[in-house]
Amino acid sequence: MPITRKMFHTQEYRLPYLATPLICNRDDAWIGKGYYFWYEEMDAIAWGQESKKRYHKYVIYTADIDFEDVLDTVFNEEHYLFWYKIIDRIADDAYKKTGRKPTIAEVNEIIKIRNSWKAVKGIMFQDLPNNPTLNKVIILLYRKRIQLVAFDLNIIHNFAFHFEAEC
Amino acid sequence: MLDLQKLENEINDIIASETTESYNELFRRMDFLDFVEKVKASGGYTDQFICMEKIGINRSNYIDGADDFSGQNLNLAA
Questions:
Q1: What is the pLDDT of residues A96-150, one digit of tens each?
Q2: Looking at B1-78, which runs of residues are DSSP E strands?
Q3: Residues with Cβ < 8 Å from A54, sequence gap 6 or more?
Q4: How far is B18 from chain A (nearest CA, A)?
Q5: pTM
Q6: Interface predicted TM-score (ipTM) of this complex, two decimals
Q7: Prior bond to A129 cis, omega within 30?
Q8: What is the DSSP letter of A120?
Q9: Could you say which of B4, B6, B15 has the minimum Cβ distance to residue A78?
Q10: Helix (H, G, I), strand (E, B) or coil at A65
C-alpha cells in the first residue's frame, strides 16, 4: 500500500499564497534542484525564522507526499543501505580518479548529469540538528532533522497554506 | 516501487564512464562558490555552517605557522 506523509514547505511571505511549492533551483542546493519539504513542523518553523529574516515574515504550507517512488533513506532500511553504498561508491571513484573528495552538490550532479535515476521522484534524507533550542537533551542528538526533496510535482498533493508568522 | 538494482546498474554505468578529466571538468563547473558558501546556501547544514565559519577552509598548499613558531620554518605541506 502506498505511503503518504504530510510534510511542511517553508517560504517567504507573499500574497497571494502559493498554489504550488516553489522549486529550489540553485545549483548548490543541498541535494539537488527540487521541491523541499520538512518532515516536522518545528523544523519548518525554525527554517522560516532562520532563513527568511529579510522578508520579516514567512509562510508554512503543508502537502501530502506520495512515497511510492521516493528513495526513503530515513525509515526504509533497504533504501538507506542502498543510498549509503551508492554515495560511497561515487565518492570513492571520484577520489580515486582525481585525488579530491566531491561535495554533496557534485555527487548529485554526477547522478543528474547523465540524466539518470528518472524513476526516483524524490529523496528523503536526514541530518543531525545541533540547534540547542530544538533539542531537549544536552548534546544527545536523539532527534533526526528530516527533509524531502521532491523532483516531481505529481507526488505532491493537497498543497495548502498552513500559517504565517513573523521572524 | 523503486527498482534498486536497476538504479544501481545505472550508477555503475555512470562511474565506469567517468574519467579524471570529466570529474575535474565537473568540479571546475561547480566551483563558482567556495565550499562555505555552498554549505550556507544549501538549505541544510546551517547549524554546522557556524562551525565551518570558525574552522575555516584551507585552500592553499601550505599552512602558515602560528606566531608561537616564529623563527622556525614550519610551513607544512598540505
A1: 998 888 877 778 778 776 566 788 999 999 876 666 777 777 777 788 889 999 9
A2: 62-63, 76-77
A3: A12
A4: 8
A5: 0.75
A6: 0.80
A7: no
A8: -
A9: B4
A10: strand
Q: What domain count does chain A have?
A: 1
C-alpha cell at A8: 511542511
Residue A70: beta bridge partners? A122
For residue A70, what is its C-alpha cell? 521516493
**Weakest-pLDDT range from A58-67, A91-100, B34-43, B62-71:** B62-71
Residue A157 grid cell: 498533493
Full domain range(s) for residue A68? 4-75+118-166
Return d(Cα A55, Cα A18) in angstroms, integer. Answer: 16
Task: Return the residue in A33, A86, A88, A143 with the most chain B beta carbons within 10 A, the one to mutate for interface testing.
Answer: A86
pLDDT digits (tens, 9 = 90+) for A26-39: 655 667 778 999 99
Residue A42: what residue type?
M
